[in-house]
Amino acid sequence: MPGTSPAQLTLALYQPDIPQNAGTILRMCACLGFGAAIIEPAGFPVSDRHFRRAGMDYLDHVAIARHASFSAFDAWRRREGARLILLSTKASLAYTEFRFEAGDILLLGRESAGAPEEVHQTADARLLIPLQNSMRSLNVAVAAAMVAGEAARQIQIARLADANIAERG
Ligand SMILES: C[S@@+](CC[C@H](N)C(=O)[O-])C[C@H]1O[C@@H](n2cnc3c(N)ncnc32)[C@H](O)[C@@H]1O
């Protein structure tokens, strides 16, 4: 929620327009303990039956922070000191080459149009999932799962390394 600290990892959706995808991503957030944010305007209400069907009862287990605009969202995440990591088909850095940190926010663009230039300029990093030549993009929920999985893996490894160092004194 706005005003609370980000989870180890937060997934943010920029003006999502396909309710089934948003429901799928939020279900993943519930299952894996990620924070979730929606930057309005979304192309559907939270009562949308496709959204509810994709998210099922898992939606009751995730706190969805709804931000009225990108600037409101960005002000919140700056207050929290969280990095903004944009996933984009226009990026050049492969997500596997990036060092994720606890507290990072992974931002997904709109299904129809990605994210606008203002968002690209604001992001601390822009990451690409490299695709085969001539393939345009992945489904947003698939892209979210791939990069969140890698980020969670890295954060867990870093946590284990810190614990080992502390144990050895
Ligand atoms: C269907 S894609 C958007 C397609 C849009 N025409 C574009 O080129 O930005 C929806 C979102 O999924 C994510 N995405 C999909 N494929 C990706 C890729 N290969 N690398 C990084 N992000 C990707 C991005 O966040 C993107 O904004």
From TrEMBL:
Function: Methylates the ribose at the nucleotide 34 wobble position in the two leucyl isoacceptors tRNA(Leu)(CmAA) and tRNA(Leu)(cmnm5UmAA). Catalyzes the methyl transfer from S-adenosyl-L-methionine to the 2'-OH of the wobble nucleotide.
EC number: 2.1.1.207
Keywords: Cytoplasm, Methyltransferase, S-adenosyl-L-methionine, Transferase, tRNA processing
Native organism: Methylocella tundrae
Catalytic activity: 5-carboxymethylaminomethyluridine(34) in tRNA(Leu) + S-adenosyl-L-methionine = 5-carboxymethylaminomethyl-2'-O-methyluridine(34) in tRNA(Leu) + S-adenosyl-L-homocysteine + H(+); cytidine(34) in tRNA + S-adenosyl-L-methionine = 2'-O-methylcytidine(34) in tRNA + S-adenosyl-L-homocysteine + H(+)
One of the record's GO cellular component terms: cytoplasm
Stored SUPFAM superfamilies: alpha/beta knot (SSF75217)
InterPro entries cross-referenced by the UniProt entry: Alpha/beta_knot_MTases (IPR029028), SpoU_MeTrfase (IPR001537), TrmL (IPR016914), tRNA_m1G_MTases_N (IPR029026)
Domain tRNA/rRNA methyltransferase SpoU type per the UniProt entry, residue ranges: 9-147
Pfam families assigned: SpoU_methylase (PF00588)
Protein name as catalogued: tRNA (cytidine(34)-2'-O)-methyltransferase
GO biological process: wobble position ribose methylation
Any GO MF annotation of the entry: S-adenosylmethionine-dependent methyltransferase activity
Subcellular location: Cytoplasm
HAMAP family: tRNA_methyltr_TrmL (MF_01885)
Family recorded in the similarity comment: Belongs to the class IV-like SAM-binding methyltransferase superfamily. RNA methyltransferase TrmH family. TrmL subfamily.
Enzyme class, broadest EC rank: transferase
Subunit structure: Homodimer.
Binding sites annotated in the UniProt record for S-adenosyl-L-methionine: 87, 109, 129, 137
Top-level taxon: Bacteria
